[in-house]
Write a structure and sequence with these properties.
The chain has 418 residues and is an alpha/beta fold. Helix content is 37%, strand content 16%.
Amino acid sequence: MSTTTDGRTAGIDVERVREDFPILARTLDSGARLVYLDSGATTQKPLQVLDAERDFSLHHNAAVHRGAHQLSIEATDAYEGARRTIAAFVGAAEDEIVFTKNTTEGINLVAYALGNAGRIGPGDKIVVTEMEHHANLVPWQQLAERTGATLAWFGLTDDGRLDLDGLDDLVDHSTKIVALTHQSNVLGTLNPVRAIADRAHAVGAWVAVDGAQSVPHRPVDVRELGADFLAFSGHKMLGPSGVGVLWGRAALLDSLPPFLTGGSMIEIVEMERSTFLPPPQRFEAGVPMTAQAVGLAAAVGYLEALGMREVAAHEEELTALALDLLGEIPGVRVIGPEGLTDRGATVSFVVDGIHPHDVGQILDDRGIAVRTGHHCARPLSRRYGLAATTRASFYVYNTPAEVRALAEGVRAARKYFA
């Protein structure tokens, strides 16, 4: 592992980054200094993001697309400027970016629009995977129930990867949509989206990708990814809660009916009928979350200044250290890929004889914030015969010292419950 002499990783200047996150200096009720290892659930926000939201609210707040006065024009410019910034971040065209509340809403938008468009019905197949977050499973279950389609899925190998042995049989000419995560929120596994998308497109199917755990952590270009839709959330990439993004290929978005209807997405309204604007406005009914979109654009700017390749390199070093240190502790078993190949900075593990919630409590007493439970991926937990795991997830502000503190805390848990 490559680290500088003062313990920082070589990817980014972590100590400098941490200055932008005052919450990381907090002392908790236990008297311990906060060690935040739960970025897979939600990330902390730098001052630059908070300042961008505050500046918009203080100086430019107004309803977008709705007025001719100066504030409305400024708000509209800020909102559409955020769209341009985020589109460039993922290699998309501006009119392919739809603002949503979060990844979950983006996936539901695609699922409902496909159903409402009559593109899925009895005899058709929807393919998902056994490692999906509930946000990319339940909407497809519901679509299958509404339409009479069949739900099928990729299974998992023992080392936490998709079982692709039956790819051609599973994704066949009856398949209309393949939905999969780019990176597992439990296993850290980075899935071969391009290979699966190539097969899906060969049989005329579309591909929807949950990018909540990949877009914040590594370079993602939608053209290279090969998918048709990609959803991700602001709060998992240093941005505000309540704002997310759905990217879709322009022609496909244009072929879909609206998800929600009302103001801002209409073209002409008469008492008998209405017509709708083209995408992305067609999918953005009502007054949007403008301050949050501005904040997300600031988060994108922050990440771009760090460099997404550098972010990924930093996280890889932390992950390598975590796998090494946890692997040295008797009775600890990591769930998912053991090495760094096609793997992200999420490490879930179990400790023999100790419930994950108890491990989490011992860590919390030491100020270490991790996630325990099935992480909104219960079928995955069942696949590995587990009720729950302890999950540590790393980001740009974490240090090697914090990874060592995690390992020390797990050792303390083993000693306490011995």
